[in-house]
């Protein structure tokens, strides 16, 4: 089996823009891979780990701060799209509603969307919001995948137990474990990403 890191050479990875409205989304019809999940689940860290670039996607020390949809052009061939995090209690209800509408509009309307990667913190059970998002992706027949982040924080047995819990909550969804710190799961995740890009 050919490992993803052998044939997935990152020749270029650049931040393109932040979009606060639909009219600001990128144009060009390239495939897009969306990353979505709760605030502080590690979206930026996972993106940087996949691209092996430090600081390309900026992780905020304040959960809930990212309010825009951020586009990154990879190898001038496809985009990584970082959606606003959800579920941070200290953000006002109005902002939470605005971010939810922004993300749902993108997920619903974006024809270039090839794969939605939902991130779940491996240390915790999926929340009601996590389950609602997964149900929405399934109901709307969106190509998707669940990734259990921060898996290096758990022992082997703890991780297996948590993955079983996530799979029970996310029926009909593939679930893999990843770690931005150790690179665990990175090759497997790239296989899903490249498979989705090739289908476009």
Q: Could you name the key traits of this structure?
A:
6 helices; globular; 7-stranded mixed beta sheet; 200 residues; alpha/beta; Rossmann fold; 7 strands
What would your notes on this structure say?
35% of the residues lie in helices and 21% in strands. It is α/β, with parallel strands linked by helices and 200 residues long. The chain has one domain (12-199): 3-Layer(aba) Sandwich (Rossmann fold), CATH 3.40.50. Mean pLDDT is 86; it is low at 1-6, 61-65 and 88-92.
Short characterization:
The protein has 200 residues and is α/β, with parallel strands linked by helices.
Estimated structural class: alpha/beta
The CATH architecture would be 3-Layer(aba) Sandwich
> Which strand order spans the largest sheet, edge to edge or round the barrel?
1-3-4-2-5-6-7
Low-confidence stretches: 1-6, 61-65, 88-92
The coarse overall form would be: globular
Q: How many DSSP helices?
A: 6
Q: What is the succession of H and E elements?
A: HEEHEEHEHEHEH
Number of strands: 7
- Major pleated sheet: 7 strands, mixed
CATH superfamily: P-loop containing nucleotide triphosphate hydrolases
Topology:
Blueprint: H1 4-7, E1 13-19, E2 32-37, H2 43-51, E3 69-74, E4 78-82, H3 93-109, E5 113-121, H4 128-139, E6 144-149, H5 156-169, E7 175-177, H6 186-199
Parallel strand pairs: 2-4, 2-5, 5-6, 6-7
Antiparallel strand pairs: 1-3, 3-4
């Amino acid at each position: 089996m050919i490992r993803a890191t052998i044939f997935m050479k990152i020749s270029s990875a650049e931040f393109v823009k932040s979009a606060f409205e639909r009219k600001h989304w990128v144009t060009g019809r390239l495939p897009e891979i969306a990353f979505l999940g709760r605030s502080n689940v590690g979206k930026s860290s996972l993106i940087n780990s996949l691209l092996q670039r430090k600081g390309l996607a900026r992780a905020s020390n304040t959960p809930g701060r990212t309010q825009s949809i951020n586009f990154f052009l990879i190898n001038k061939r496809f985009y990584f799209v970082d959606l606003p995090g959800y579920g941070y209690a200290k953000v006002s209800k109005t902002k939470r509603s605005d971010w939810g509408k922004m993300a749902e509009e993108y997920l619903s309307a974006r024809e270039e969307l090839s794969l939605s990667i939902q991130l779940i913190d491996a240390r915790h059970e999926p929340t009601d919001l996590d389950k609602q998002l997964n149900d929405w992706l399934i109901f709307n027949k969106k190509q998707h995948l669940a990734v259990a982040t921060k898996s290096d924080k758990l022992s082997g047995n703890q991780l297996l137990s948590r993955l079983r819990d996530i799979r029970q909550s996310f029926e009909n969804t593939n679930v893999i474990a990843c770690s931005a710190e150790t690179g665990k799961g990175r090759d497997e995740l790239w296989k899903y990403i490249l498979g989705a890009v090739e289908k476009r």
